[in-house]
Each structure stands twice: as C-alpha cells, then as structure tokens.
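Here is one chain, start to finish.
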Amino acid sequence: MRLVVAFLLLLLASPARALSPEEAAYIAARDRAAAALEQKWDSAAHDKAIGALTPMLRRIVGPPPKGYPGPGEMVRDSLCCGAGSDKLDAIAFGDAVVTTEGLVRHWLGEKPKQPIDLGARLREGEDLYFGLTGDAAVTVYATLPIERPAGTGQAVAHLALASQAGAFSPPREIGVIVQKGGRLLLHLDKAAAAPELPACEAPLAAALDKARAVRVAGKIDDSFALENEASDAYVQCWSVRISETAAYPALVQQAQRLADALAADPEP
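Its structure:
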C-alpha cells in the first residue's frame, strides 16, 4: 500500500519548471564562455565574456529594488574558474543580490523529472547563501521570525556563520531571502549586533577537548566524527536558545528592515 501511495504522489508531483528562452540563452552563452576559460584561462577573454553576459543577465533579472543602486554587476567571480566560482547567476545591486526562480532552480540542479521544492530550499537558506560566498560554507544557526512584506510570496531570515573553518564560533551574519514576482532577492551581511550564548560555549569546548584527546591517541577518523558531532550540537544549541541573547530583538529588527527593503518595488 505504501508503495502505491508513494507512486501516486510521484505522479502528482509538480514537474520541473523550464527556463524561459532568455534564461536558456544566457545559460548556454555562460556555459560556452566558462568551458573556453576552463580550457585556457585568459583574463582579457574573461573580462570580455563578463561584458557580454552582464547585459543579458540584467535584462533577465530586471531593475533593483527601490533605494538600491543600478545598473548592477554580475556577482563577483561567478563565471570561472576554480574554487569560489560556483556562485549564483545573479546581479548585485550594492548589497542586494537579485536573480530569478528559473536561474536558481537551474543552479540548484533541477532536472525535468526531478523537481526541486524551492520553498523548502529558501527556508533552509544555506545553499543560496553559499551561492553568494562561493568559497566559504554558510551554516544557518537559527531562523529569525519576520513578517512577510506585502506583495511577496515568501520571505525568510536567518542568523548564520560564513566560515571556511566550520561552525565552531558564534554566528555573525544575517541572511534574508525574499521571493517576489518570479524573482529572488538576497542579502547576506554582518549582523549589526553580535550575539553571545555562553550556555552553548562550555559544551562545545568540552566536546572539542575530547576530540583533541582522541586525535592525540591516533584515532584521526574518530576525532573528525567527534568534531562534527560537537558542531551539530553547538548549532542546535543556538537554534533552541537564540531568543535568550540580549542581541535577539536587534537581530530580528535588522532582518525585518532588510526584508522590507528587498521587497520594495523598483523605481518607476
């Protein structure tokens, strides 16, 4: 019976959304340029490709929200090559990064018979924030409660940490994602207030001491496993206790201001 239900749910699942003709043309041109640069790097050819791709992407993405500067540029280092180059196909208008649902679905690897639950990925946040940093993992410590601005389909905010060294220190970034009119508008920046949670630090320190002792004993794989467990427990502690921090009200207010700003209609 369970197999039958699962099969029916699969049949009823929404199909993956196709790229618009403009999005498909941009992706094809970007892939050709990236492939050529991967084969033979040339800074002049890179700059020429960016110059050709940027107007295409601007037309797809549209104008910036009110108050953000235009005309905007492609997200830095998003074309090619190596570590840090796998960033979102998006235009940065100052601190606001704007892309489309179609481009994000493609970037996330959606296939015709493998649709992505975009709403869930937005609520999680980490994949899209990584698409802004490229060379640093972004760990979401907690979701910040914000009101959805008028006219938006979804708006989420997160307290996070962008780091190449793992989630072993307090979160220092606020990320906001707004879905509006087929566009996704993102902001990832330093939190105005630095939260502290001593109740989470002591268990982390004890767990890392245990991991170091195991490593000294020559059990490297076990020590890595213990470090991962310590990090997971640390992030979970923050998720549960974030509202206890003195900075919490200011963090929520900052996130709401960012969401409202991203949701503002473009200048007429």
